Amino acid sequence: MSAEQQPGIGVSAGISIGRALVLETHEVSIYRLPILPRDVEPELERWRQALGEAKRQLQQLRHRIEDELGENYSAIFDAHLLLVEDHGMIDSVSKAIREQRVNAEWALKENVDAHLRVFQQINDRYIQERGGDLEDVHRRLQRILAGSLIHHDLSELTEDVIVVAEGLSPSDTALLNKEHVIGMAVDEGSRTSHTAIIARALEIPAVLGLGTISQKVRTGDLIVVDGDRGHVLVNPDPSQIEEYERRQREWEAREKELQKLRDLPAVTEDKVEVKLLANIELPDEIEPAVKRGASGIGLYRSEFLYLQRSPTLPSEQEHYLAYRDLAEKVQPHFAVIRTLDLGGEKYFHSVLDREEINPVMGMRAIRLCFRRPDIFRSQLRGILRASAHGTIRMMFPMVTGIGEVRQARSLFEEAREELRKEGQPFDENMKIGIMIEVPAAAAVADLLAAEVDFFSIGTNDLIQYTLAIDRGNQSVSYLYQPLHPAILRQIKFVVDAARRHGIPVSVCGEMASDPLGVMVLIGLGLTELSMNALSIPSVKNIIRSLNAADLRKIAAKVLNMGTPTEIEEHLMRELQSRLPGGFSCPVH
Ligand code: PEP
Ligand code: MG
Question: pTM of the prediction?
Answer without folding.
Answer: 0.71
